[in-house]
Amino acid sequence: MEKHPMSKTVVRFQDCDAFGHLNNASFITYFINAREDHLRDYYAFDLYEHARLSNENWFVGRHEIAYLRPAALGETVSIQTGLLHFSNRSLVVEGVMFDKDANKIKAVQWTTFRYVNLQQGRAAEHPEAINTLLAGVLLEDVERESLDRRIRQLKKAGNAA
Fold this sequence. Notes:
Largest sheet: 6 strands, antiparallel
Structural class: alpha+beta
Helix content: 25-40%
Shape: globular
Mean pLDDT: 96
Distance between the termini: 28 Å
Number of helices: 4
Radius of gyration: 16 Å
Order of helices and strands: EHHEEEEEHH
């Protein structure tokens, strides 16, 4: 299974600031949308269908993001996502935004998601099938201690920032 799915998107006018750069808050939306697409396209996992059938889903608990370069209006960017960590009740997803050719890093985001029972509004445990999927896509040999260390690791791997 692909552990580093990647897709491209175009920076839209409504997501930009007065300088024509992707607004800081919009980076978060781009990363979450990319991950949703990657789950569907690479793993045949539909978040909404899962919620409908199980009455459980993930909610954002926290974001940590580093902005390294602007993403400009009309620019095509590449977004890679991957699973950094998971437990019975949560997971941490990494998003890396690159230029079109995936040569230069624009931003790196870590998002912690909490698994919740939608009826009760309380934390829930991942079903075994979800844990199996998560174990199969977990990134290996990546820095998990700090976002700054992870950025250094990405740069060293050949993605200049």
